[in-house]
Structures are given as C-alpha cells and as structure tokens.
Amino acid sequence: MPLTRLSLLTTPLLRVGPSSVHGLGAFATAAAPKGTLLGFYDGKRYSADVIDSKTWNDQLTYLFVLSDGTTIDAGRGGNATRHLNHACAPNCEATEAYDAAGRLVLEFRALRKLKVDEELFIDYRLQADASSVAADYLCTCGAATCRGTMLDPDHPAATR
Comparing 96 with 48, which gets the higher pLDDT? Predict the structure, then answer.
C-alpha cells in the first residue's frame, strides 16, 4: 500500500509531552517490539540549492537531510516525530526507505522493545562544518556512554 500524506502525518504510536532531556519529547503510547515502525518524518521538502540560500534559526530547527540531498523541515508541516530528542544510547533509529511511488522517506523504528510512556530517542550524529566546536552541540542525555556532544562521533570536533 503506498504511503499517503495522511499516513505520514499519523503517528498513533507517539505522543508529545515534556521531556526530562530537552523541551518536548516523543513518548511511546503502547509497548512495541524491536523493529516496530513508529512513524515517518514529515514536513516541507527543500532541495540542496534552496537550503543553501535560506537563513535558519540555529537555536531550534527540525531539519533532516536525506541521502538524495533533499532536506525535510518538520517545523513546517511536520508531525510528532520531530520531537524525538537526541541520546547517545538511543532506543530508536532513523532509516531511509522508498514508498510505493519511489519517493525517499525517513522512518523511525524501535531498536529494542519499548515500554508504554517511554521517551523515544535517536542519536542525531549531527554533521557540521569542520570549524565547529563540540561545546556548541552539548548533549544532556545522561547515558553512561554519553559523548557530551550531539555531533557525529567521527566529526573532527567531537573529541576536542
């Protein structure tokens, strides 16, 4: 069955509420086994050329860059998936897939069994320019394996 606009916006396995990590978070509305599809990231799509010409609020963005160079801005037309916060030990992952029409989509799946009302996290693994400083991307997840930054661990600034 092809994905429709309605199915992208519908996130029955998620609810949004106050997070102990940052602002609002996404929480499981039901127990879910490992691998469960939790929802699709949705919002306005931009080409790489348009993204480069825009000015963004660096304090709060809901941008997700796909491998085809397009960017989804969930701040415009997004759904509850935009509230998945970062953690260095995530319980969910974002993966790319193609819908029946051949359009690249971003889906969120459980990395392990989830409990009802458990906050959902992904590892942002942020990409930034080489001159970026890890302290500008502080992580407050509290995991035993916390890197202290939301930057990709392979980013040059992640260890300095």
Answer: 96
